[in-house]
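yo

u said u wanted the structure for the complex thing, so here. seqs first:
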Amino acid sequence: MIAAQRRIRVLMGKPGLCGHDRGIVLVVMALRDAGMEVIYSGRHNSPESLVEVAIQEDVDVLGVSILAGGHLALCERIARLLRERNAQDIVLLAGGFIPPEDIPKLKAFGVKEVFRDGAKLDDIVRYIEGAAAERATA
Amino acid sequence: MDTPTAEPHPDAPDLRAQQRAACDPADPAAQTLLMRLRQGDRRSIARAITAIENETETGRAIVRAIQPDIGRARVIGITGAPGAGKSTLASALIGELLHRGHRVGVVAVDPSSPFSGGAVLGDRVRMERHTLSERVFIRSLAARGHLGGLSRAVFKVVDVLDAAGFDAILVETVGAGQSEVEITELADTRLVVCPPGLGDDVQAIKAGILEIADILVVSKADLPGADRTEIDLRFMLSNRMASGQPAIMRVSAANATGIGELADAIDASPRGRETRRATGVRERTRRFLAQETGNLVRARLLAVDNAELNALIDAVARGEIDHAQALAQAARIAAGNWA
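structre next:
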């Protein structure tokens, strides 16, 4: 057979009520240009819905973007739902307006990395490539 | 949903058990995945699809193992231009099919970038309200360079959903132009979505995508221009000599009109043309072999760099050999290369 190439699959979505989607769309395009298959689920996703989509789409990475507060409650819930569905192997990333002092709390919930405003697109791409490679060999 | 007459009833228990036993994979990981998939476990269905898309050993073992399980679902193809309203129509149809008691699988294909190979898969945004339904499973696929409106894996992904017990499977193609008609072979019922404002009566009489429809769906029927679209399509049909007259249905997702009628029309859509079930597993397998062998020959010829092929290329370029002879030689070179 002609070898099919394994592609990194990423779900990107916005949980909660925050409607600021310029940032996440930029990240989606950067990931696409880096050769990834990005499922974009748009705005106003519930944590339950994001986790269900991540499972159905069998993604390597779930990235959430939050710019209007609520990141602690939302990420805590998403991480818990992933564990409940035995899907904590999916790498959970958060981005947006996130105060530095909240980063340790998010990581304690199970968020693997946080990309605050001002993060470089290349850094996000490189991080996801590394995390997906690690996941593939795990 | 009825069953093909040319083959044994697919639910015949003895035959099915025998066939299953003969096809079950040796690999324990694939066995477990297969067992959970048949029980409808969502994570296992998702992982099986990934394995098949990536053509791993596990993926191949699963495709082989589910052969006795397939052929039960009705496959509904949805195609049309980008922005025609395919995903929105799919979402409305999912709701109606759930209401009628079906378990609904959805495969939504979006294009891959010809440059990076990446893709943005956004069809399911329109279907979000069904995400948490236990009787719905939606999977987005990237076309991965495959032309024709689908992806290479999509036939097998439909089979996985069929084997997992989804009895109505919607397949949404990439936004199609005029000639992406591959859905014809995959679907039992083909919907071609025609929104208002995309062209006149000359567009409507061209060959191609409009010809494959079992049902022409005039979408966005709440918009001005929908009447004109319907008139143009009716004109096209009134002068058509070819067999089979598709229905024309008007649907507005915004006003929630026409969906029940569309679902009725899908149930009643004409049989006897080439459908997934009418062609039967044997014929489908033949087509699969033809298509994949074609892909393989193509890849081999693009990859190989030997004196014989180079001589053939030069001979064709200089007009020393006719094309029919050249094809025969090229096929022999490709075959020799993978023996």
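The mean pLDDT of chain A is 93. The two ends of chain A are 26 Å apart (CA to CA).
cya
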